[in-house]
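Step 1: inspect the first sequence and its tokens.
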Amino acid sequence: MADIPLGGNIFALRSWEIEKRLEGLPEVKEAKVSKVFPYLVRIEIEERQPEAWIEIGDRVFCVDEEGVEIPASSSDLVRVYLPENQKSLLLEALSLIKEWKREFEIPLSAIVVESDKLFILELQNGIFIKCEGVNNLKKKSAILKPYLRDVSVRYLEVGGFDIRVGDDLIIVPAREDLS
């Protein structure tokens, strides 16, 4: 892909053209090409890392943290379910994943996007959290952490939490569903 002729004169190479060609690959986030005189060309590549599987209708694809579609084979990524008319909320869902990983230890398994004010985070332990978006999660993370710890340590019968209202949260009993 770099298309550098072997045995050619490196003085004639345009590093920026090679970088642009390499960055055109979906897997490449950033490329840095430098000449090491008299005869070497150093290429450094930062690869895009898969962040989530996205489902929009019957289409499933993988994206990195910036929402760029990339090829991937990993099946243990967070799944994000977006309705056709809510594609614009992809970056908000990816921000939720990033914030969740930064603040919490319990793995996230999926995010169901219902609207711009309702994101349902599904945890691997079966608990769900209803929130309005990443700012709502940031604001309520200090309140939510002790409850999640109590659920895992004390095996409380909790279906989930709704953090959308007021300064506190609502505990949803285990028998209620996501709707």
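Step 2: inspect the second sequence and its tokens, then contrast the two.
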Amino acid sequence: MPKIGPIELPEFPLLLAPMEDVSDPPFRAVCKENGADLMYTEFISSEGLIRDAAKSVQKLDIFEYERPIGIQLFGSDIESMRKSAEISTEAGPDLIDINYGCPVKQVACKGAGAALLQDIPKMVRMTEAVVKATHLPVTVKTRLGWDDSTRNVEEVAERLQDIGIQALTVHGRTRVQMYKGDADWTLIGKIRNNPRVRIPIFGNGDIDSPEKALEYKNRYGVDGIMVGRASIGYPWFFNEIKHYLKTGELVAPPTMEERVNVCLRHLNFSVRWKGEGLGIVEMRRHYANYFRHIPDFKPFRMTLVTSHNYGEIIETLEEVKQRFSQAAA
């Protein structure tokens, strides 16, 4: 059983990736209900947290049923990261995670996220400062390297373990790749099979089916898998993987009634947590995924992604449930 400090995890844990504008408490709630074993907040700017910026502070919201839950931080300044780790610790998570993997320009071009893969000594100093600033376990999420000529994640794994991180998640792409091409898990497997590496190693990237989860588990020997984009609008994915790993059988996809019911729970939590206006708007990015591959769904989707009226959205979802449940019957 992998452990992150005192946190005991299942035999092969499934982690929900920290995704900006996605991994908020409403989304985490439906993923937890459907099998996610360890989850993280959206990544939080250390500078924003120190300035008490409202958006950054709100991301510290965590709930008891989410545990174990990690707060993920990013930044380019070591002292700011140290201070933000202290602030985050007071919010009461189970662990602190450092983002050394975000590839987007607004982050990497400011020296944060994946940019630290170009300066391993600074990455080590920053990580050590965070480890010393909290009594909680500290974990790291990163990539293979900055580009194909600097795939240095094996060195990163050893050096960060040596200064005290408790687990490492590796996304199988370089920063230059962004999210294009196929994720390469070869180096992730090498890290896991390195006898010097004693901490849990989690793989991330392109896990889009239960079959692939099992294949990568067996081929690369990782301690668990982090799931990202495949779970957006499809929180059932975690339990589908677990069932397949246990039985070798695929479960039937959720019925239309199940899709609508979980979507409604997600929407209602979003409205409660963010207020009706923002809750409705931020839910829009999820509808297409909740009702993926449903024929003749476009008129309903247009209403869902344009309406500002909570009652109209509820009515539309109930109509979707009736219309497509009857069609399935």
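Step 3: confirm your contrast with the notes below.
The chain has two domains: 3-247, 256-328. Residues 3-247 form a domain with the TIM Barrel fold (CATH 3.20.20.70).
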